[in-house]
From TrEMBL:
A family per Pfam: ABC_tran
Origin species: Sphingomonas glacialis
Keyword Nucleotide-binding on entry: yes
GO molecular function: ATP binding; ATP hydrolysis activity
InterPro entries attached to this UniProt entry: AAA+_ATPase, ABC_transporter-like_ATP-bd, ABC_transporter-like_CS, ABC_transporter_ATP-binding, P-loop_NTPase
Alphabetic keyword roster: ATP-binding, Nucleotide-binding, Transport
Highest taxon listed in the record's lineage: Bacteria
Chain ranges of the ABC transporter domain: 5-234
Protein name in UniProt: ABC transporter ATP-binding protein
Length: 307
């Protein structure tokens, strides 16, 4: 793996004694989209803030493109673009001036063509002379993304980038993410919209209560932990699964359907249907269901809480 970002033993304990982050080890590959999932307060923003140099870690090191993020902060930070959750702009400044200023902050020479392209990609070019306070919430969030892209970073952090954004703006943002990724930008995102992570990410990390539960290729994670169910709508409801079918992992759902859990390699469904017929059990409909990434995420967090 061509590692562009490495986190080694990074933890955070605040002066109050609150342990926000347990020691984290994480390597991010160049050009990948990595989704970090977790409930509110799980430690996602703390980890991102440490990587971006906003928060000082209690232990551990962060290396960005070979630069130690603490000892060589400027070089490490120059490679990173950050889209935070909270708005952090001068509301009385224009869109164009704000984005140009962000580029200068990172010591980049003026490049009007690049700034114009970023604003056009985000549908902000027509609003370039508008003051930020005049924009809608969704457009203000686009300005945050434009600021983060102004200095052409190789790594882009998106911390809940589509929170509070309408569907149309969300689609525009994800089109931009695809374009950036195609151009070689490494993208690390946190999101509550798990379907977005399912669609976009190459790898998924799950964090809860400051601890990374797992890091896995998305496809492998869904193969390994995803569940499949055959949901059978019966012609007549059953009060219990007949003893003759005890060898089958069947259960009766609250809505009366018969549920059969199976994996992708299971080829016994015709045998199950034959067994139902042999018991005189008829059915009206068959439906298969595959676990989503959200189902897997919820199961992982619940299993950890129960442990």
């Amino acid at each position: 793996m061509d590692t562009i970002l490495s986190v080694a033993g990074v933890s955070k304990t605040y002066a109050s004694g609150h342990r926000a982050l347990e020691p984290v080890d994480l390597d991010i590959a160049r050009g990948e989209i990595f989704a970090l999932l977790g409930p509110n307060g799980a430690g996602k923003t703390t980890l991102i803030s440490i990587i971006c140099g906003i928060v000082t870690p209690s232990t551990g090191t962060v290396t960005v493109l070979g630069h130690d993020a603490q000892k060589d902060f400027r070089s490490a930070r120059r490679a990173i673009g950050l889209v935070p959750q909270e708005l952090s702009v001068d509301m009385f400044e224009t869109v164009l001036a704000t984005v140009k200023f962000s580029r200068r902050l990172f010591g980049k020479a003026p490049d009007d063509a690049h700034i114009e392209q970023v604003l056009r990609d985000l549908s902000l070019w027509d609003k370039r002379d508008a003051k930020i306070r005049e924009l809608s919430g969704g457009m203000k969030r686009r300005v945050l993304i434009a600021k983060a892209l102004s200095h052409e970073p190789e790594i882009l952090f998106l911390d809940e980038p589509t929170a509070g954004v309408d569907v149309a703006l969300r689609r525009d943002m994800w089109r931009l993410v695809h374009k950036l990724r195609a151009g070689g930008t490494t993208i690390i995102l946190t999101t509550h919209y798990i379907e977005e992570a399912e669609e976009m990410a190459d790898r998924v990390g799950v964090i809860d209560k400051g601890r990374i539960i797992l890091v896995e290729q998305k496809a492998a994670l869904m193969r390994k932990l995803g569940k499949r169910e055959l949901r059978i709508t019966l012609s007549e409801p059953l009060s219990a699964v007949p003893a003759a079918l005890a060898a089958w992992p069947l259960k009766i759902a609250e809505d009366g359907r018969l549920i059969y859990a199976f994996d992708a390699e299971d080829e016994r469904i015709p045998d199950l249907l034959a067994a139902l017929g042999a018991q005189g059990i008829g059915y009206k409909d068959l439906e298969t269901h595959k676990s989503s990434l959200e189902d897997i995420f919820v199961d992982l967090v619940e299993q950890k809480d129960a442990a």
